[in-house]
Amino acid sequence: xxxxxxxxxxKAAGLTLTGEYHAQPxxxxxxxTDVLVMGGGGAGLSAAIxxxxxxxxxxxxxxxxxxxxxxxxxxGAFNAVDPEAQAGQILSNAQKNxxxxxxxxxxxxxxxxxxxxxxxxxxxTQLQSDINAFYAANTGKTAGVDMPGFxxxxxxxxxxxxxxxRQMSDGRWICSDIELARTLAENALDSYDWTGSLGVATSSHxxxxxxxxxxxxxxxxxxxxxxVPLINALREAAEKLDVKIYxxxxxxxxxxxxxxxxxxxxxxxxxxxxxxxxAKGVILAxxxxxxxxxxVKEYDEYWGDDLSDHTLxxxxxxxxxxxxxMAMAIGADTVDLGVAQMMPSSSPIKGTMxxxxxxxxxxxxxxDGNAKRFVNEYAERDVLAKASLALDDxxxxxxxxxxxxxxxxxxxxxxxxxxxxxxxxxVQQMVDNGHVWYGSTLAELAxxxxxxxxxxxxxxxxxxxxxxxxxxxxxxxxxxDPDFGKEVLNGIIDLEAIxxxxxxxxxxxxxKSSLHHTMGGVKINTSAQVLNEDGQVIPGLWAAGEVxxxxxxGNRLGGNAIADIFTFGRIAGxxxxxxx
Length: 580
Fold this sequence. Notes:
Elements: H1 2-12, E1 29-38, H2 42-53, E2 58-61, E3 78-79, H3 83-86, H4 93-103, H5 121-137, H6 153-164, E4 166-167, E5 173-174, H7 178-197, E6 221-222, H8 228-240, E7 244-246, E8 249-257, E9 260-268, E10 273-284, H9 293-299, H10 322-329, E11 334-335, E12 340-346, E13 365-367, H11 381-389, E14 396-400, E15 411-412, H12 427-432, E16 437-439, H13 442-448, H14 462-478, E17 492-493, H15 495-500, E18 506-518, E19 521-523, E20 529-531, E21 537-543, E22 548-549, H16 560-577
Parallel strand pairs: 1-2, 1-10, 2-7, 10-21, 15-17, 19-22
Antiparallel strand pairs: 3-6, 4-5, 8-9, 9-10, 11-19, 12-18, 13-14, 14-18, 16-18, 20-21
């Protein structure tokens, strides 16, 4: 790949080449297995492991030179309803106000669109019953003092529904498939524990702290190992079960015999053709298509002019929609291809989620170029993205004072410049690389903004920053956001303590929206079987992860992707591995 890139660069530079590198394909190969998994990210690895646990012989192919896919790029947030962990939390006043608001909802509320999606009425009814039962069980306890945290399957489902309920450009509304949403909500915690049994680092329920990753809508996000340690643990678990893994091998075509998927045609990076025959079938786990902005733009029914063929992406470069195109070629149905999620907290220069620092959504303070808050930081990601894209150059700024140094009463005492940010680099390294601004005092921070950082040339004054922070602090202290109605407010920034300590300070991270997750994909049922355009199962074909659609509708909740890939990856593998 390096040699090919160098040759292309030389041509672009007008150099004359005396020779070029061309990979030479080998003789055609034929492999035989029970189950073939296409894609080596979290969904593919979990599917391969699950299928092998059923006793099936499994081959996994990955077109990249390394495993991990988009899971390698994810932040590791894992949403799961966890009563044991919630029992160790304290329900805040703002959270209780939100629950009271749910009790006041009726099926006739026009904004809920339950007239169009009546199947979701039962979830609202169950949610209200859950809340009333919770209040009854905690009579005499006070929110913010001794009332424990609350969550339920119905609440998670309700957030999936309202978080994904969106209107397309043609005026129609879409929502999540209720049975897929139920499957996710009911099985996420078991999926979390299952990955723990495979050697993935997970936190204990009883002592674990729940948080709210950006766009999650509720503190049910579990801490979860991510990146290389996660993929290595899954790879080792797969290899122990004798799963055969081949990288630099791309699927190109599904093989159908008498109406059943019986294998796949693939190609090695050097062009060697491979035919892989399967006794049980194929699992598609090849990811979405956010690394293919032209495809996103082609199907787009939501973003309009906010999207182009060259919009930056947080994704691994391999997420180009291959599996979806292959499935469509044999008659698979698709759903919600017109919606992609924009990640608002991305690098303005690279589109990645690295090169910055940001915390729990309940602690984030977002400002525009005039140091004014412009959105509810606890809102869904598409709401955040739309609000940020309306700003000058689409740039906004996250003020961070260090949740890692919070006192017991939730006061942020400041951030140490040696502490880690996103992507494993320290705050000081990000400052040195020009990605963020840092100051041990507000005066130093304001002075730092006179230099360029993260693609921004905005300058803030000390007075602007102090005003923004003190106003937000008052909202946290009163547990009420009169400007945007933020539901969960945590982390008062203690300016006096920070300015008195030269070893800690405050960070400002410039951010911008980029393509992050495609909601649409092949249509599946709760057994992860792929359906054709008549709603019938395509025998021998399963799918899991971002290659599928229907679960998240118009907007995926932050923290639901990792829960999705392991829940449906496990289901797909179990069903494919046990197929006759």
